[in-house]
From TrEMBL:
PANTHER family: TYROSINE--TRNA LIGASE, MITOCHONDRIAL (PTHR11766:SF0), TYROSYL-TRNA SYNTHETASE (PTHR11766). The lineage of its organism: Eukaryota, Sar, Stramenopiles, Ochrophyta, Bolidophyceae. It holds the Pfam family tRNA-synt_1b. It catalyses: tRNA(Tyr) + L-tyrosine + ATP = L-tyrosyl-tRNA(Tyr) + AMP + diphosphate + H(+). Its EC number is 6.1.1.1. This is Tyrosine--tRNA ligase. It comes from Triparma strigata. GO terms for molecular function: ATP binding; RNA binding; tyrosine-tRNA ligase activity. InterPro entries: aa-tRNA-synth_Ic, Rossmann-like_a/b/a_fold, S4_RNA-bd_sf, SYY-like_C, Tyr-tRNA-ligase, Tyr-tRNA-ligase_bac-type, Tyr-tRNA-ligase_bac_1. It comes from the Eukaryota.
């Protein structure tokens, strides 16, 4: 974990290392990772923590994934400029279903893998213990273990209080609820380790201290560094919006292209963090320079995409990427099977604006963004540039019932003409 770049802070690294080395197939160390159900998909910014949990399971630890059915009703204020939107039970239930798909891809919940010594993982919901808490009893039993002075000392709270929007008392309670989650999971599941991003350090430390004070148990907190790209931007944020992990929100082809477009300076680091390629192989790939580094980028894209969407999609994606932008005498764009698609009724020909199609294909975040794309010369139908912001799709734009719209050099989508 150290050599791949996963370690940032730990409450007691030496003792945790000893506990991990003492883990056995019959008594594995349990580590938990929590996610609130604030959306129906996780995004690539969550992937680092999931990869850590995956590595731990492959090394013999037992993953416990916590979905915050209860804490999603409060909202973690960490790193946020304003309060989260309030969600009802139906929204949270649907979101839990959406994010669970990703965990089931990376983590083994089904059965023990005796050959590799991977203990079975478990998914839990903090609604099971937070939902029935009695407020006065909770305050009396646990409120004395928290001081406002200590809570105000954490950087995550300081940052929020310095922002324009106030920190509500509801959100201020989030840290206490997360700390109590750790105590409950220690009791219910024998959890000894909580994982999180560096911005979660304050919340995690409170849980470690609460468990020690109440139950006299040693548990650990481990955070990973905040991942930024070489140009200083937060990992996973693009002009087109979030890089979602669910295929219905972000296609496997788009996901592959996201990794393929990694900056040269980030390739070796991302290979360590987001793939399972051995470190000695990554070291050789990191020596590539110039045009040769594109091969390392393709390997990164292949491996990261195969982990999320399965290896069977890679050949089709590669073919689409290789052929998409090749000029053909008949105007066709090669294999487009991996691209995002929208269907256009034949009756809408002559009135369907290209601007709207770019928006529907998620090649633009708004009509204004699509118009900027056209004005900047980055909008094309296959290889023909679109110069008019009011351009409407016509019969002649379609080849074999498909019109390929391109945004820049590497993003594209297909408008399919209804039969």
């Amino acid at each position: 974990m150290r050599d791949r770049g996963y370690l940032f802070q730990c409450t007691n690294l030496k003792a945790l290392d000893t506990a991990l080395l003492s883990s056995t197939p019959t008594s594995p160390l349990s580590a938990y990772l929590g996610f609130d159900a604030t959306a129906d998909s996780l995004h690539v910014g969550s992937l680092l923590q999931i990869m850590i949990l995956r590595h731990l399971q492959k090394s013999g630890a037992r993953p416990v994934v916590l979905v915050g059915g209860a804490t999603s009703k409060v909202g973690d204020p960490t790193g946020k400029d304003e309060s989260r939107k309030m969600l009802d039970d139906d929204d949270i239930g649907n979101n839990i279903k959406g994010i669970s798909k990703v965990f089931e891809t990376f983590i083994n919940f089904e059965e023990d893998n005796e050959e590799e010594g991977q203990p079975k993982a478990k998914m839990v919901n903090n609604e099971d213990w937070l939902g029935g808490l009695k407020y006065l009893n909770f305050l009396r039993d646990y409120g004395t273990y928290f001081t406002v002075n200590r809570m105000l000392s954490f950087e995550s709270v300081k940052q929020r209080m310095a922002r324009e929007n106030p920190l509500s008392f509801l959100e201020f309670n989030y840290m206490i609820l997360q700390a109590y989650d750790f105590l409950e999971l220690s009791r219910r599941e024998g959890v000894q380790l909580q994982l999180g991003g560096s911005d979660q350090w304050g919340n995690i430390v409170q849980g470690v201290e609460l468990t020690r004070k109440v139950d006299q148990k040693q548990v650990f907190g481990l955070t990973a560094p905040l991942i930024t790209t070489s140009d200083g931007k937060k990992m996973g944020k693009t002009e087109g919006g979030a890089i979602w992990l669910n295929a219905d929100k972000f296609s496997p082809y788009e996901y592959w292209q996201f990794w393929r477009n990694t900056a040269d300076a980030d390739v070796a680091r991302f290979l360590k963090l987001f793939t399972e390629i051995p470190l000695d192989v990554i070291e050789k790939l990191s020596q590539l320079e110039g045009a040769s580094i594109n091969e390392a980028k393709k390997i990164l894209a292949d491996e990261a995409t195969a982990l999320l969407h399965g290896p069977d999609c890679i050949a089709s994606i590669r073919e689409t990427a290789d052929n998409l932008f090749a000029s053909k005498s008949d105007g066709a764009a090669g294999d487009t099977s991996g691209l995002e698609r929208v269907v256009l009724s034949r009756s809408d020909l002559g009135t369907a604006k290209a601007v709207d199609m770019f928006l529907q294909l998620k090649l633009a975040t708004s009509k204004k963004d699509a118009k900027r794309l056209i004005a900047g010369g980055g909008a094309r139908i296959v290889n023909e540039q679109i110069t008019d912001e009011a351009y409407v799709l016509r019969e002649e734009d379609f080849v074999d019932g498909e019109c390929v719209l391109r945004a820049g050099k590497k993003r594209a989508g297909v408008v399919v003409l209804e039969e």
